[in-house]
Amino acid sequence: MHQNFNIRFAEEKDTGLILQLIRELAEYERMLNELKADEDILRESLFDRKDAEVIIAEYDNKPVGYALFFHNFSTFLGKRGLYLEDIYIRPEYRGRGFGKKIFAFLANLAEERKCSRMEWMVLDWNKHSIDFYKSLGAIPLDEWTIFRLDQDALRKLADKSK
Amino acid sequence: MHQNFNIRFAEEKDTGLILQLIRELAEYERMLNELKADEDILRESLFDRKDAEVIIAEYDNKPVGYALFFHNFSTFLGKRGLYLEDIYIRPEYRGRGFGKKIFAFLANLAEERKCSRMEWMVLDWNKHSIDFYKSLGAIPLDEWTIFRLDQDALRKLADKSK
Hints:
Two copies of one chain form a homodimer. Chain A is α+β, with helices and mostly antiparallel strands. The first copy, chain A, contains five helices and seven strands; from the N terminus they run βααβββαβαββα. A five-stranded mixed sheet of chain A has the order 1-2-3-4-5, with helices on both faces. Chain A is globular, with a radius of gyration of 17 Å. The interface between A and B is large, with 78 and 77 residues. β7 (144-149) of chain A pairs antiparallel with β5 (118-123) of chain B, so a sheet runs across the interface.
């Protein structure tokens, strides 16, 4: 049915495309003002340092979305997990099951890499995505809250270590 | 004041101690039934594969707590962050500022490694910790929820990629 759908690992030459897709995601999440990365920063992080990995989804050889992920770690299981930082499908390609194919690809990758689980975050207002994630068998960790020290708070706290 | 307090990076010979401290944390979080890691698993993950790093806090040369962390990644910033998976201080050593010293140590490490931010999760009932994190300048990401595919759900979804 989707023989023209393909998922591949991104390469350095995709850096411009990745930034464009990230920008579209930032617009969708109403967070464009928080997008600080540029091509040089992404090239260094993704392809020199390999801080995270990116896959590109294509349909008829055109890019239709991407996912960015890295490995986290469960102390209680003693094993790596796969943490999905971003998944994005361009609006005109939604509703065709491509998102589910990306999740299945990543679940298979996580199994191959002997990961204990796969996790990601969603904005609470994004009911459409939440329903989709539940349909995949994912459960919300409702009893947990993320805390964050941003750059300024980090610097202030770091000063206290000296 | 705390000249006898010291923080050091864990080594392979600390594996048994790390497991003991993880077990104490699991008891405190009422999750002992979820603790699957043993010494062999931890040795492989932490010291062969280096999936995460551990620091040990000591007072008068006795272990009083630990923290386990790894690097996550912010797409919008294009940079690594420091993700604190666990922090634990033995009950008899609480109330002396040791937790704050561990956070300051990690904040300084995050700065040295050019991380954009530092993050961790807390159980919603743990008001004492939440107040402490806010006192450090951390903010709760109340509008986000974590979703998780556990091992069984991961396997089922992976099968759909074939």
